[in-house]
Amino acid sequence: MSARRTGWVWHELYGWHDTGRAAGYVLGAPGVQPFGHFESAESKTRFASLVEVSGLREHLVEVRPRAAAEEDLLRVHTEAHVRSMQEQSRRREGGDMGDGTSPFGWNGYEVAALAAGGTVHAVRAVLDGTVDNAYALVRPPGHHAVADRGMGFCMFANVAVAIEHARAHDGLRRFAVVDWDVHHGNGTEAIFLDDPDVLTISVHQDGNYPADTGALEDRGRGDALGTAVNVPLPPGSGNGAYLAAFDQVVVPAVEAFAPELILVACGFDACNADPLATMMVTSSTYRTMTAGLVALADRVCSGRLVMSHEGGYSPIYVPFCGLAVVEALSGHDTGIADPFEPDWIDWPGQEVQPHQQAVIDRARALLGPGASR
Ligand SMILES: [Zn+2]
Predict the structure, then answer these.
(1) Is-catalytic flag, 204?
(2) C-alpha dist (Å) from residue 290 to 83, 105, 230, 323
(3) 207 alpha carbon to ligand 1 midpoint, in Å?
(4) Are residues 136 and 307 in contact, defined by beta-carbon separation less than 8 angstroms?
(5) Which DSSP category does 369 fall into?
(6) What is the pTM (predicted TM-score) of this model?
């Protein structure tokens, strides 16, 4: 690993985003004792804590987030959605992002605007040469939000807002988004469905969330046909399936597309300990995929790579997956070992299974001749 200047976005306010007392995401149903929402602060604050305590933070370049301006949000979202979020955010009791399972507390708009702005500023730091690459540990996440509403715990489409900001201010045109959150990146895909200059690739658990999007056959529209790529992996997929999907679909697709910037919708909910999915990925696979993206970015876009944090609901395990990713981005090894991986790495099914490989083969075949190698 060669050392890089890696930008690091984190703000205390991300930990203050209030998702209330739902049990997971169920609120007020008979027999359901109130607990905490799945999208709680802890997986993010503990990730930031480990980056600090491990000493890795000293090797990173702090990039201070600033809130996305209204005009930044309005390049992607409807005015009605932005106004609704602002209005609900002023209520003491807060509101909901748009689907009834994505609550936010008082002032939630300000936190979400800071999450979009954190991704914007991570991109800016890479484009102006302040850093080589960057990790934006932002909250709430963004990849499910569509133009006219939030959903799936996402208020605004953080990555899409950053892309449109870079187009408006930095003159970039072509972008690739690699989404390895375990849920389908439906919002990013929908926002750029007709845009031939944004490649969206989502590797996700088939039929998990949203249930009706992310099929292999969904590949974009019109002039943009082929610029949406979906790899809906079967439940139970582990390290072997993810590495195969990465090597055989993600890398050739990005390489053929030749973007000017690679963004990653970085969720850690494909990990072996996640309560919202049933995959088995461990930290070394996130490390390997990140190292692969660093090398890929070197080949196609002068190393320009920005990750924006998405889901990941294990407060215990997300920090170790995150540490592995930021170590691989920065080329700095803290020497802190993932204490869980030895117990999980040899589970039966960690190798790619035939029914998983079949999905990867189909996704690869749909890439077309430009991506064959
Ligand atoms: Zn997710």
Answers:
(1) no
(2) 37, 34, 19, 11
(3) 12
(4) yes
(5) G
(6) 0.98
